Amino acid sequence: GSRTLTPGTTMAAEEPPTPATLQRQSSLDREQELIKYITDKCAAREEIELEEGWKILQEKGIDVVTATLQETDRMDKKPFGNRGYSSLYTVGFNMCSCANTPDRSEDLYQRVNDAMARFLKEHVVEPLLDPSLVGVAMLEKFSKAWHNHKIMTKWIQQLFQHLDRGYVLNSATESLTSCGMKKFLNVAFGDTCERVRAGALDMINRERAGNEIDRNQLKNCVEVFIVMGLCRGSGSKDLKSVDKMLKMNPELDVYTKDFEEPFLRSTREYYTIEGAAWLESDSVPEYLSRVETALGEEEMRVGWYLNSATHDKLQRTCVETLLSDHQKQLVERPNSGMYALLKLEKGEDLRRMFVLFQLDGVEKGVAPMTQIFQKFVEDQGEALLDARRAEIKRLASEKKKENQSDPSMIMGMLALYKKTNGMVKELFDNHLEFQKSMKVAFQEFMNKDAGKFANVELLTAYCDGILKGHEASEKLSAAAMEDRLESVMNLFVYLADKDMFAELYRDALAKRLLNKKTTSMELEKHMISRLKQLQGPPFTTKIEGMIKDHQMCDDNNAKFEEYLKSTAADGSTASSSSSSSTELSETPKVQVLTLGFWPSQQPRPVNLPPVLASAQSHFEAFYQEQHSGKKKIQWQFTLGDAEVHGIFPKGTYRLSVTTLQAVALSVLNSQATPLGLDEMSQRIGTDEEVTKRILHSLSCNPKYRVVKKQGAGNPKTINNDDTFIANEKFTSKSKRFTIPMASLDNVGQAIKNKVVEDRSYLIDASVVRTMKARKRMTHHALVSEVANQLQTFNARVGDIKRRIENLIEREYLARREDGDGQWTKEYDYLA
Q: Could you tell me the pTM of the whole model?
């Protein structure tokens, strides 16, 4: 037969009061009584009537849980004992599912719901209705009430879970857990929500202020807002159990509206007041340290008792209030802001500022920091320029000239780069905006000159010194040289006039190679390869050609030596020439250089002595034979060198001199009477100015005066009426020495003139290439495009305009005119 009761036949009986012996009955006694009851019923196969069964379930089950919760908020995991629990479950199950008996599921379901409602009213809601109960006291009461309600709902679901599996499933009604939670929402939560929230916010602020709080209480109270969202959600009818409910994906509508939003407003208000107080009393590092601590505590607070969805909103609220609103003041504060931290090298504080200002909620991010960083780097660079200017001024007061080889400013710039680049990498995570700020700052002062010599010239001179094996007075190892050169490349990228650097470097390289001053060919090649990587192959074509020429010199000289031996054996050389060539102590070394690769030098005719003229004629014959007359030689004596064996009355010496000095010494060799300046000039074959420089190096050198100058004029300069003769009294402690000679050309100005000329060709090529591709362009667009294309120097707008005018005159371009003959600010390309 059917177990379903006809609607209306169930009578709601008044619940009997809890027996007076309930509190005194032990759990073991209850367990034994329950076991006996259900055993007897099953053995007799007796039906359990509704009133009889409900009384057992009420008194031995629900009332036991209620009484226990009133005594303590800790619930025994086995309040009925294992067999007592199974007996209670069997009583309820048999009332609903025993064969040949009425199905009392609906009545039992209703009575269970009534019992939960009564428990809420008498033991949960009533203690909370007192309107004077607020703050922490309210929170304590509410936390305990919610805790007890969860336990009650849990045990009711366990004792009557057969209803969830049968009656609830078949009738599509709400589960017992859903009923319990919704009753709490409707009965307890509605009237107490505002006071609970106020208490929770007050407790959180107390904890922020450093007071101890009961976080479990707070977590219980916040949990209610999340659970109440589940009770209003789509799955609110089918909450399986309390434990499973707490693990479900939360429905946060109630939590967000009734707790999170007020909580965030309270947080903003709290930190607005606290932040203002911190700013008033603390330095910037101390303030940021407080903020860092506060953010860490807020993050832990989320884990302690808030929902994880609040994390980002809470952090953003704190960041906006404590950092974004005060960012300008924090960065720019005079004595403890970012500039002061940079000057004092407070890396930890700078790192903290960088990390905090990157957080979501800081409106301007790290932009204000990058501006201060750029200004700091610029100021440090300007300080180096000022120091250079001060040194130049000091030298001028002492009537001394500015020294291009002084590496102090370049060394300062290298140290500044190392320092600031280290900051960008280690403190600012190599952030792109900090890289840009550093680049702009270095470009600003690297291209601003402090004296007669431009920074590009000083940088080239520094490279020259390093490749010669020294930095100032310090000798360098190969590893140190490589390290310094790599550092130089870091500064090179900031130069605007890279083409000027290339020409100056080429000139310095030529002198190193020709004068045998380079210390490592591997490092020379390494430097060229780095320039090639940074600027591309065309930038280093000529320099690579110079290295190739230099390496071929040894092969050419070896072949020349073989040539001399073979011609001497064949007797094909005139006897006079042969005798002249034998006066040389060794075969002369001739360096054959490709004209387009090496820096151009002004040809200077020289009257070579017979011994050198013989060597010259022999090499010309050899070279013509090697190349079948297809290549022409142009002799450049200004950069040549020679070793002269000097025999003086007080000693014999070996003099390392230039070719021109050697010619002058040859003229004075065995000369019994002094020669005047004009006579010396005629015999050497050079003009008067060049002759003066040659004789100045030989007669005015304070250490090695191998030539004696006679005359009434200034002893430190060459005068027109001076006479010259070999210095028979010359003596020196050094048996081998070099006599330096000043350059004959204004090399720096010549290079600058060449660079200006080359730039005009590059601008012309860029304009023509661009117009050929576009056919027609506006003036502004053309100038911008050309400026962007030229990477080796900063083309000024005025220079580009002049080259455009020149191309118009040469009919490469034409101005476009409208119908009235007015220029439309456009150009057409003329094919």
A: 0.77
